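This week, work through this protein record:
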Amino acid sequence: MPKEIFTVENLNESIRKNREHAYRNTTDPLFMEYKRGEIEEQVWLDAVQAIKEKYPYATEPLVIEVDEKDYAVTLEN
């Protein structure tokens, strides 16, 4: 059965992009609310921690076995 192998570096690049998107859309606005005194600092810190937990960095490669019928590629000229 064919295997797809995702290196730690590739996985972490994807995770970094997911974190960046989540920070920009979630925690950056909360940080500004905190700086303006509209929310407690802990609200912002909890949101940062939630993103880190949702998108943990990989420590080992990911190997996925792929069913051959799902793995077929058709090339057309």
